Amino acid sequence: MDISKKIETANCYKFFAECFYFPEGKQLEIIKSYHNILPQNLADLLGNIEDEKELQIDFSRLFVGPFKVLSPPYGSVYLEEGKAIQGESTLDVIRLYHEDNLQVDLKEPADHIAIELEFMYYLASKEIEAIENRDLDRANLYLNKQYSFIQRHLSKWIPEFTDSICANAKEVFYKKIAIALNLMIEGTLHTINTVKENN
Hints:
The chain is an all-alpha fold. Helix content is 69%, strand content 0%.
């Protein structure tokens, strides 16, 4: 994979992260600003952002409540017995953040989908930085950290999260974003497994 593809991948993680923050005016502008740096299939999804108010209502229904959260955006809900928030899987995520000296002072649990995707963006950016500095050992370290995080966390709960969004979302935008993210995670997992088989 050449560096331009790696930059595109990093941008995709950041874009997906932005999509799982509350879609008020400024946030929507941030999301739309990715139009020219995304692969065409993702850029096309931005055409599904039409009614800001309807998007906000759907976001709240899916990810916030106030009564029942239809598609909880926390890994622990899908990974822990009894759908507990802030379980052992959350502590593992926090440990991984701390390994890279990242401060975890967050309003949301550390395994919120947007935060996990921000972490993937961070890891991908560190890999790119290492490649640009011709430090291949460090580049491989950060590539392996990305693969490990996908295997230990994202690939374990994103499919069920995606199914939940597809079953409950009223806005096409959230359905398509979830499907696209799931396909990206599946594709990376396939790459990881192929590399393992060939070694």
